[in-house]
Each structure stands twice: as structure tokens, then as C-alpha cells.
Give the backbone structure.
Amino acid sequence: MKETPADTAQAFVLALVLHLALFAVLFIGLWWTRSATPAAAGAISAELMDASQLSSAMRRTLQRQPEPLPVEEPEPEPLPEPLPEPVEQQPKPQDFIPVPDEVSQDAVTEQPTPTPAEEKKLQEAKRRQEQVDLTEQARQEAVQRNMRMVEQDIQRQKQLEDIRRRKAAAAREAALAEQRLAQLANARASNAAEAAAQNDATASGANGVDDGLKARYAAALQAAILAKWTRPDTVPIGAACRLSIRQLPGGQVMGVEVSSPCSYDEQGRRSIEAAVLKAQPLPYAGFESVFSRNLNLNFRAEDR
């Protein structure tokens, strides 16, 4: 059976109590012996007398030697009975363990009983190990939380990237559709402008006007306006727009408006109107025969 620190302490306390009890018994015996000793006789007063003054009877009495009295010896004191030795408490019967104990009892009994200091060190080491285990568990939980957060961030980034790709694809499709519509509108406007030009040429030829001079006049107006115009990026090259110009002889512009057909957006329309005003006086010399106060010009977008 393994001796525990509690058993050691209990044995030490019982031994101390036994010694104290023996010391108390010895002290009581000594005290009782002293108290039983007869007290000393009281003081005796005497007077010296001459033997001749005594009577004959007293002298005979003095001459007789008294027989010694028997001295009573005191009975020896009984020794105190020894205290019974402390009976070691028997441990409670151990419950039946269904699983056999794999630890060798011989090895257990051979191990020295740890001292209180060693026991305290073992407890401190156990507490430190438990604290280390708790710290390691908390660290692992923190690592797992961080991994879950990283995975969630990666998933969120993938979703955002997918949304951005879809938006970019939709924007490209919308831009392509808008570009196709603009090209279709430009083609329709160009066809309408060409048809109007042919109609004007036909009407001029019918009125006896020189078609070649009228074409050169239109080209001169186109070049003059183009020299003062900065084409916006929203107006593609080759896009046509019909201009209605009011002018005076000599080429002074009184007013200009964009009329149909015209495929330019609002910015393009304002820019071409400003270019007509900057280009005045418009070409006039040499084109007097084809000059018109109310002029319709089919302008085509080109780079300078």
C-alpha cells in the first residue's frame, strides 16, 4: 500500500501525543510523591537540668534505653500504565474494479513516497501543463477561425469577380449594340443625304445651273467648315449631317441649324454649328451664280 503524506502526518501527530501523555504522567507522579512526604516535626524547647535534681524514678527511666520503633517504609508507587499504541486505521475496502490493473504493484511499492515539496512541484508542473494545453487549444481555435475567414474572403472575392465579369460583358454587349445602331443610323443618314444631294443636283440641272460649279461650291464649303471643326469622338468618320445655313452675299452667316437627316449626337451637332460660324465668311467669290441665301449643305465628317 502506498503511503501518502496524510498518513505520515497522522503518525507524527500520534507519536507527539503519546510523548506528551507520558510526560504528563511522570509529572503527576513526582508531584504526588512530594505531597505524601510527612511534614517535619514542630520546634522543641528544652531546659538544661542537673541529673541530681531529678527524682530516682526519672533517673531510672533515663537510664533505660528505649527500644527503637519500627520504621515503616513507604509503599512503592505503582508505575503508570503504558498508553496503548495507536492502532493504524485500516483503509476502507476497495470497490471491485472490473478492468484489471495493468500497473505492477511491486513497482508502485518500490517507488519512494514524494515529499510535500515534490508533491507541490508536481502539482505546479501539472497546472503549467494544463495552462499550456489551454493556450495551445486557444491558438488552434484562432487559427481555424482565421482559416475560415480567409476562405470566406476568397469566396466573396470570387463572387465579386464573377459579378464584375458579367457586368463587363453586359457593358461590352451594350456598347456593341449601340455602335451597331449608330452605324445603321449613319448609313441611313448618308443614304438620305446622298439622295437629297442627287435631288438638288437634278433640280439645279433642270433650272440650267452648272452642276460642276455647284459641286465645287459644296466642296469649298465642306473644306472651309472642316478647317474650323474639331470632330468629337462620338462622331464617326464618314457620318453625314444636313446643315441649313442662312447667309448674305459675301459669305456672312446669319444663322445655322442642323436639320434631318443627321446622325450626330447633341455634342456633335453643337460642334458643327460652332464650326460654321467660325468659318465665315464662307466661300463666295467665283460662286456667285450658284450662291443661295438659304443653303442646304450635306456635311460629311472627316479628319483634317
